[in-house]
């Protein structure tokens, strides 16, 4: 896979595909992770300050890598952050991801990010946005880790926006300059709200001054002024999380006789930008199918025996029904 970082779920293998005429599904084998952050948050499991710092450190490291590669995830939420019993965390589910768009005149999809974690610029109909929408989502998750409840839990996008302004106050006009006219009017005609950031200190005992300071840098109305993943990683709040991760959990540092050696900021400083230029030559679904089919077969070239689906598995019934249906279609075509 393109992503070469321990903070993003890796594709270990792909099942051998059938003949291209029957090729309708892709089975990807990934690393086994035992749970996700949503299940951890709603569980009775106690979350200490160390837990929160280690989780937040890994999320931001993953986002730093993705953003450096020019990728917007666009659906960062607890359910898309897989964890195991050792508190190792990996970002997954790139179904809404896309390459960043430097041209601000180009319109971008607005129905992205699960509502509770959706940045205000998207809620207000901005036609263009940056990777700072992912940082907003991380801020919401950070608050959720501290308080063990969803920070902005609303029934509609408008109510979502109202809950955000209840906490951050009414934004100045320049902070919502990219919002649609209707959203601007909704904000401006409402009563002026003062920020009530002191509420964040009441989330839990873990909401220290440093934690709230970092959280406030993430939850900024103006996306231009929102902290980046790189700068967030340099915040003093994460010093302990970085140390704990690299002394106990990571695979990037190595051990010597005298103890574990921390290799520091081990990710490459210049991550190659993701190249999606091949998409410009794709004009049909069949062409996409051919490209994927060829890619899988090329990946499986070598001496090893390719993995195949287990006929005893629950998924096999669906798989064989699909294959049989397409085979019958091909046979009828041949008869004609």
Automatic annotation (TrEMBL):
InterPro entries the record matches: Kinase-like_dom_sf, MAPK, Prot_kinase_dom, Ser/Thr_kinase_AS
Location, primary (coarse class): cytoplasm
GO cellular component terms, semicolon-separated: cytoplasm; nucleus
Residue ranges of every copy of the Protein kinase domain listed in the record: 1-238
SMART domains reported in the protein's UniProt record: S_TKc
Keyword Nucleotide-binding annotated: yes
A Pfam family annotated for this UniProt entry: Pkinase
UniProt entry tagged with the keyword Kinase: yes
SUPFAM superfamilies the record matches: Protein kinase-like (PK-like)
Range of residues in the leader sequence: none
Catalytic reactions on record: L-threonyl-[protein] + ATP = O-phospho-L-threonyl-[protein] + ADP + H(+); L-seryl-[protein] + ATP = O-phospho-L-seryl-[protein] + ADP + H(+)
Keyword terms of this UniProt record: ATP-binding, Cytoplasm, Kinase, Magnesium, Metal-binding, Nucleotide-binding, Nucleus, Serine/threonine-protein kinase, Transferase, Wnt signaling pathway
Enzyme Commission (EC) number: 2.7.11.24
Cofactor(s) this protein cannot do without: Mg(2+)
Source species, domain of life: Eukaryota
GO MF term list: ATP binding; MAP kinase activity; metal ion binding
Subcellular location: Cytoplasm; Nucleus
PROSITE patterns in alphabetical order: PROTEIN_KINASE_DOM, PROTEIN_KINASE_ST
Gene3D superfamilies in UniProt: Phosphorylase Kinase, domain 1 (3.30.200.20), Transferase(Phosphotransferase) domain 1 (1.10.510.10)
GO biological process: negative regulation of Notch signaling pathway; positive regulation of neurogenesis; positive regulation of Wnt signaling pathway; Wnt signaling pathway
Record-stated family: Belongs to the protein kinase superfamily. CMGC Ser/Thr protein kinase family. MAP kinase subfamily.
Protein name: mitogen-activated protein kinase
Organism: Latimeria chalumnae (Coelacanth)
Name of the encoding gene: LOC102353948
């Amino acid at each position: 896979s393109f992503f070469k970082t321990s903070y993003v779920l890796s594709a270990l293998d792909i099942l051998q595909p059938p003949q291209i005429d029957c090729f309708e599904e892709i089975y990807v084998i990934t690393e086994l992770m035992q749970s996700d952050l949503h299940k951890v948050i709603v569980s009775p499991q106690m979350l200490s300050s160390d837990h929160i710092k280690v989780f937040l450190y890994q999320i931001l490291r993953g986002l730093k890598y993705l953003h450096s590669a020019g990728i917007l995830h666009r659906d960062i939420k607890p359910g898309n952050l897989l964890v195991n019993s050792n508190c190792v965390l990996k970002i997954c589910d790139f179904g809404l991801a896309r390459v960043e768009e430097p041209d601000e005149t180009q319109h971008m999809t607005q129905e992205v990010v699960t509502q509770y974690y959706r940045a205000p610029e998207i809620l207000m109909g901005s036609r263009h946005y940056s990777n700072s929408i992912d940082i907003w989502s991380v801020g919401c998750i950070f608050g959720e880790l501290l308080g063990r409840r969803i920070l902005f839990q609303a029934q509609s996008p408008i109510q979502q926006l109202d809950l955000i302004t209840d906490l951050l106050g009414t934004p100045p006009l320049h902070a919502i300059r990219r919002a649609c006219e209707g959203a601007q009017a909704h904000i401006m005609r409402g009563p002026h709200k003062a920020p009530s950031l002191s509420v964040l200190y009441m989330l839990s005992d873990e909401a220290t001054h440093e934690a709230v300071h970092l959280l406030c840098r993430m939850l900024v109305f103006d996306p231009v002024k929102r902290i980046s993943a790189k700068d967030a990683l340099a915040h003093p709040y994460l010093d302990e999380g970085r140390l704990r991760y690299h002394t106990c959990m990571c695979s990037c540092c190595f051990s010597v006789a005298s103890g574990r050696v921390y290799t520091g900021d081990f990710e490459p400083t210049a991550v190659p930008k993701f190249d999606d230029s091949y998409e410009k030559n794709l004009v049909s679904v069949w062409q996409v199918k051919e490209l994927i089919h060829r890619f899988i077969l090329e990946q499986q070239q070598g001496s090893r025996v390719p993995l195949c689906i287990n006929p005893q598995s629950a998924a096999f019934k669906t798989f064989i029904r699909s294959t049989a249906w397409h085979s019958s279609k091909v046979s009828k075509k041949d008869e004609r």
